[in-house]
Amino acid sequence: QVQLVESGGGSVQAGGSLRLSCAHSGSTYSRSYMGWFRQPPGKEREGVAAINPGGITYYLDSVKGRFTISRDNAKSSLYLQMNSLKPEDTAMYYCAADQWVQPWYRPSQYNYWGQGTQVTVSS
Fold it and tell me: I need a surface site. Which of 27, 77, 92, 120 has the fewest CB within 10 A?
């Protein structure tokens, strides 16, 4: 059974940075597609970024150039470096995993989810 635990959320001012981490407990990490999703209050969950087992990355258009997703297979960990944060980035951020996803940004493609970590950006 895969368990995902996010950390690194917090409150920052616009223009600031945060780094989210996600620890994956299973033995399948290196073969898994990993994604970051976010859900603002009252809105649907949306894909922010994803990375496939080979290291190919995918991003939501609005975060390209500001966010960077990366993975460390030796540590079974996923990261999201978020720079130049904007108030509209405020949301609960979730880590997700599965063996195969298509397309990467669709939440229903992922069977494993973390509990989420809150990111709040003030203007």
Answer: 27
